[in-house]
Amino acid sequence: AHYPEIQGWDWSLGAPPPDYCVIKSYDAVDGKPYIPPPPWGESCLPACEDEMDSCVHPNFCWEWNDEVQKSVWDMCMGLFDEVRDAFYTCMDTQRQSCSGGGCLRISQVCQLEVGLATNADFEALQCKKCNGEWASWELKTIDCAQTLGTAECRWNETTGMAASQPCSQGCFWELCQDAFQECQLSGGSMVDCGNQTQALNQCRDCELLRCDERCAKSACE
Question: Per-residue DSSP letters for 46-102?
């Protein structure tokens, strides 16, 4: 990059805007510059992307407390460590009796069972909003998508897996597997159901079918 000589520029603010850049190398796919796909899907508006990012990665979780010399996240992890063994025992038990989308909320069940959800310090620190072993990433992204300020970006709980959700991570395996199986039970072929399910924004990155490369695609049916 070539930076112009700007008289009186305050370099504490960083470098000034460059006059131009020389691109020496770039990643390409099919002979074209590679552009990473939008993190929450093609249908998620840029403003909604920022809101999703700030919701799933809240800045307050990393705020530093000078008194205890720890971040909020560190304090949340300390509280979790006190019930870690009981929490994972609960999770193992819950996994044995849940299936598909029903498994998404078992972390909430276990937070209650081991007393983490009702712990006054855990609540005061808002640890439920921070990422950690105590939380389900999938459930958190759904909760964030359901509360987006822009209506056309919001996850529609009424339509659920029956429609493509505008802002979503690439694969909710439990939910997408359920949708794939329901399609087959309704008489759809494996290939058609795989394509139909992957067309949903929330299932776009799910590998629902894997055929031997030596076989024709029709062999998956």
Answer: HHHHHHHHHHHS-GGGG-EETTTTEEHHHHHHHHHHTTHHHHHHHHHHHHHH--GGG
Which burial class, exposed, middle or buried, applies to 74 when counting CB atoms under 10 A from its CB (0-12, 13-18, 19+)?
middle
Is 191 in a helix, a strand, or coil?
A: helix
By mean pLDDT, which of 64-73, 90-99, 185-194, 203-212 is the weakest?
203-212
User: pLDDT tens digits for 101-120?
Assistant: 889 899 999 999 999 999 99
Domain boundaries, the chain: 170-221
Q: For residues 201 and 208, what is the distance between their CA atoms, to the nearest angstrom? A: 14
pTM metric for this prediction: 0.77
Cα 115–Cα 88–Cα 111 angle in degrees, nearest 5: 25
User: Which residues touch 112 (CB under 8 Å, ≥6 apart)?
Assistant: 118
